Every structure is written in C-alpha cells, then in structure tokens.
Amino acid sequence: MTQHYGIEVQGLVFDNLSVTGITREDWLNDFQSISGEFIITEFDSTTFNQNEGQSNESTL
C-alpha cells in the first residue's frame, strides 16, 4: 500500500506536491487510483502528543 502525507494549517493542506497549499477538499479530490478507494487517517493536533492521540479513519 502506498502512503501519502499532508498537513493542514489554517485551512490549507501542504505536502511535497502542493507546497503552496490547497484546500482540504481539493487535496482529497486530487488522489487517483485504479480502485478509486483510499484509506484516510486523520490526527487531531489538539489531542495528539508523543504518547497518545486520537485518529479518525475512513475510506473514500
């Protein structure tokens, strides 16, 4: 499985392909795969620290 990471800051997502930042919706819509499915894991920075964090995983 291939993984790709981005970080959202003040409403814009940044990654190695979107260095100027794009909206979360545009970032998610930019993915392509043969199956058309993706597993997305999101971490909330307000509850995440070195030892524990909460994640929300969904399949698109």
N-to-C SSE series? Answer: EEEHEE
Low-confidence stretches: none
Any idea how many domains?
1
User: Main beta sheet, described?
Assistant: 3 strands, antiparallel
- Helices, by number, come to 1
- Provide mean pLDDT, rounded: 76
Inertia-based shape:
globular
- Order of strands, widest sheet: 1-2-3
Assembly form of the protein: single chain
Strand content: 25-35%
- How far apart the termini lie comes to 15 Å
Radius of gyration: 13 Å
Number of strands: 5
Structural class of the secondary elements?
mainly beta
User: What share of residues is helical?
Assistant: 10-25%
Protein model, in words:
The chain has one helix spanning 24-29, and strands at 7-9, 12-14, 22-23, 39-43, 55-59. The chain is mainly beta and 60 residues long. The protein starts with 6 loop residues before the first strand and ends with a strand.
Structure, briefly:
The protein is mainly beta and 60 residues long. The chain has one helix spanning 24-29; strands spanning 7-9, 12-14, 22-23, 39-43, 55-59.
Q: Helices, strands, pairings?
A:
Elements: E1 7-9, E2 12-14, E3 22-23, H1 24-29, E4 39-43, E5 55-59
Antiparallel strand pairs: 1-2, 2-3, 4-5
